């Protein structure tokens, strides 16, 4: 995995560049939309969440033996995205939640540059690509 120097300003600038942000989120949305109906179902969101859960289990961050708690967490995440409570997540709902998530990440990163490991295909990778050539530095691969 690549290592990069990033700060919250890089992430915030990406989110505030409406064209770049919406293009990246539309691509992510389309990748999650398994039946190509223009909405994300519970199973689409769950599949995306399972990737994060798998990573968390692999890093010993989550207990894989708590299926009821995992199901409840999936439901809470889906409800957070499905703001109009119609049972599906549309592109506008998806972009709004992803914007909030990325802005929270920007706040967490703060203004001081940090060296972080970047997950290939992850959210921060979009912000880094947007910031390339300005104040983002990719370092060597992490072991």
Automatic annotation (TrEMBL):
Keyword Electron transport: no
Keywords: Calcium
Example GO molecular function: calcium ion binding
Location of the EF-hand domain: 20-55, 69-104
Protein origin, superkingdom: Eukaryota
Full protein name: EF-hand domain-containing protein
Species of the source: Ceratopteris richardii
Organism placement in taxonomy: Eukaryota, Viridiplantae, Streptophyta, Embryophyta, Tracheophyta
């Amino acid at each position: 995995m690549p290592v990069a120097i990033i700060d919250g300003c890089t992430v915030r600038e990406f989110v505030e560049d409406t064209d770049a942000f919406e293009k990246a989120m539309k691509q992510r949305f389309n990748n999650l939309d398994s039946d190509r109906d223009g909405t994300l179902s519970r199973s689409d969101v769950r599949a995306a969440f399972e990737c994060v859960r798998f990573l968390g289990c692999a890093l010993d961050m989550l207990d894989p033996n708590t299926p009821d708690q995992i199901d409840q967490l999936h439901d809470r995440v889906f409800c957070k995205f499905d703001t109009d409570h119609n049972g599906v997540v549309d592109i506008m709902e998806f972009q709004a939640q992803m914007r909030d998530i990325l802005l929270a990440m920007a706040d967490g990163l703060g203004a001081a540059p940090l060296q972080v490991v970047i997950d290939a295909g992850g959210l921060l990778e979009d912000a880094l690509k947007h910031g390339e050539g300005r104040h983002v530095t990719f370092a060597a691969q992490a072991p």
